[in-house]
Amino acid sequence: MAPEEVLRALARQGLDGAEVFLKHGRSRRLELTVGGEAAVWSEERAWAVRAGNRRGSFFAAGTGEPPPEGPWPPPLGPLLVLPEASAGAPWSEPGDFDAPLIGESEGFGLLRTIGRELAVELPGARLLHAALEDGWSEGDLASSRGVRARRRQRVASLHVEASGPARPARIGNAPAAASLYLAAREARRFQAKALARHLADRLSVNASTTFPDELADRPLEVLLAPPAAARLLAGLLPLLVGPRAASRGAALRDPRGRLASDLLTVIDDGRLAGGVFESPLDGEGVPSREVVLVEDGIFRQPLLAWWQADGAGAAAGETSGCSRRASWRDLPSPGPTHLYVQPDPRISVASLLGAVGRGAYLIDATGGALVDLEGDRFALPVCGFTVRAGRAGAPIASAWLRGGVGDLLRGIAGVGRDLTFHPLDGMIGSPTLLVTGLTLARD
Amino acid sequence: MPFSPLDKAAVARTLSQIAEQPEDLVDAFFERREEVELAPEDEAPGLRVRREEGFAVRLVREGRTWLAARDRVDGKSFAEALRQVARALPSATYPEPALAPSPWSAPPHAPELLDFPAAVARAVRSHHVGFPLRITVRRHRRWVQVVGSRVVPEPESEVFYSCSAELAWGRHGTLLPALGGAAAEGVASACVALFRARQAAPPSPSREAVVLAPGAVAVLLHEAVAHALEADLLAQGGRPEAALWVAMAAAAIDVLDDPASAPVGVRRATDDEGTPVCRRWLLRGGVVEQPLADLLWSHASPALLPGAGRRGSRHLPPGPRSSHLELLPGQDTEADLLAAAEGGLYLEAASRGALDPLSGELVLSFPFARRIRGGAPAEAVGPCRLRGRVADLLSAVGGIGREARPAGAGWCAKGGQKLAVWATAPALRLSGAEIVP
Lengths: 443, 437
Prior knowledge:
Chain A is α+β, with helices and mostly antiparallel strands and about 450 residues long. Chain A folds into 2 domains: about 5-205, PmbA/TldD fold; about 215-440, no CATH class. Helix content of chain A is about 15%, strand content about 40%. In chain A, the strands form 4 sheets. Chain A has a 6-stranded antiparallel sheet. Chain A has a 6-stranded mixed sheet with strand order 10-9-8-13-20-19. A 5-stranded mixed beta barrel of chain A has the order 7-14-16-17-21. Chain B has 9 helices and 23 strands. Chain B folds into 2 domains: about 10-195, PmbA/TldD fold, CATH 3.30.2290.10; about 205-435, no CATH class. Chain B is about 20% helix and about 35% strand. The interface between A and B is large, with 48 and 48 residues.
């Protein structure tokens, strides 16, 4: 069924503002647990309609084909506003959109290899749970305002939980645990050996119970590896996304608009080449594009959807297609697609590490950032190593990185070239960051 | 019942064709769901309706599971899914049973939702306060039919409500068996308490006596007893049956999972695998008696009883989960509990909980608390967390209230499968509980 057929039927019922979204897709999920293994094939076929008239609006969604004649829910509440059709820049669909889904034996092979390599890297370590999902979808969108769009997506995700060797009874026998959650365009991009090494590092660090007191509660030089830096960036999204972002960050900016160190540039780009969600259009059919949010430390504009910009004041700035549809069940909602700290291709991680005299190399965050913008403070649970004279030393587990939000942004003293993205609120990316003036505290 | 017209005998016969070995488990799971949502009054679209149906076919053989799911219910899709789980060649054909569920009823009608936000606003005003409040209220309905190769249980259905209230100072979310005056007053009271605690400072780290109200006990039970006794999580630390007869809590603690005595709308006779549910004693006298298990885990560990298999969606295999937890009442009045915790904290409602299954470390988060003074909850205290090892927390129970009350424990999202979980519990006093801001 074509979405236009449903649009015509809605118009006949007096619902003259309407949008019809049809979606179908397939996915394969392969799961290893301590109890066995599971292979799941899913086929999805569903639709969503937003429609309204002068009396109000409704949202209806369901599986199968939409019933053109309804019955539809009664229109209630505020009027529905839909975007107009607009043309975006030319775009070529990446070739890997057509790559076949990972096979059952190939996928289980990848998961088992992670387990084997983990046991080699850290004897006694084992996988508790590993789930690999690989899928594609196609969506057709049409609206009464002339939007006609077709979107394809190809996304794979990997979630792994592992435990380390048993620990001595004096520190509790429970082994250390660590987990990974990653996304890529297709499952074959996940590198088993590298992932096993990362898990082993995390388990080794988490097995430690000591906290280096010489680092406690004093300003440090801190090297934030991409997973930890991305978590912090995700915590700072209220400063960067939506019409209230500018006012939230006002107290952190100087009179010239400087929010951060001049080494910091933050970008959101829905059509980022190679990105997991790369698409020329967003979930409402609005063209996506690159938007510079912070440039050389100066706040330029927040990330705004077409209906959020007021052209002046706090919500000034160019809009972009940034409405996401988490699934056919969900209404489009604005947010980052690929939001990232621009890397510096000249700076290696080794050179940043070498620049640390006395501080810490934080390889991961063990939870989300707690950010209090009004109180100008943040806390991030982290793990990593001490660093002295550019060399990594003792492990640091169960620690909190703390400081002022302004101090964090202004304290960025180095940006590496190793940009990687993490599935948080959208894909959030950062290279390794060197930050001064933050403190570490025992959990 | 939407699945009454299905030719279940034909489905069972078709399933039996892929059960090649005596120990094979083969079943089909048919599901229909409806969610009707009334958005906050300033948000478009006003009414939101989601309706879905589909099925999954599953084959379990020697610890390996194959599952194929579809977003439609018809004979052709069923035969295709069957071929997928049997890993048969495309040329293999299976019969296409007659599968035509009854059509959806005409326009979704949920008038009880329309009145609820105004009822909450009136209830807030009756507390002599006023503040902006955005209410989202939803009705959830679900119909389930399981067909096995040997057994075809009766269909099951569920209906309940959820409500989310957003204030400038936080959010209150709850599950409700029904909407009405009492439900509106419950939501309003929780919002007023959040409002009144808006400027309260968090407590300093301490070890002290706390009294958990039934709503907070529900979350404690879910995290500390139910999750800790799920066979799949127990297996991460070794053999699940090794937990049997282990003393895990104070001797006064009796905890059951009984889906058949849940609130009327969500009461179940069988689980999502079609197995009859039972009144399962998780802890009797503080000792582990019967962990939560589904068919897969009861097959691997025969000492475990199935009947606790739940599915968040047809697109994922079932897993062992609780449905309706009960903490049996003790002897204490609420006044006794509060008097014995003088100077400590009264914890009314937990906003979330998390259990590390390997270490047994539990953290419950509270948006606010109240200091106990003169045997009653007094001034508000800001956000705080209760933490400790499960065994230590459950051994620190110093008193159990004598009046058990229904309390929705909330949404559980373990393994990405979002499920409503319920509880009936009295208040509880813990001594020497670790409180951190």
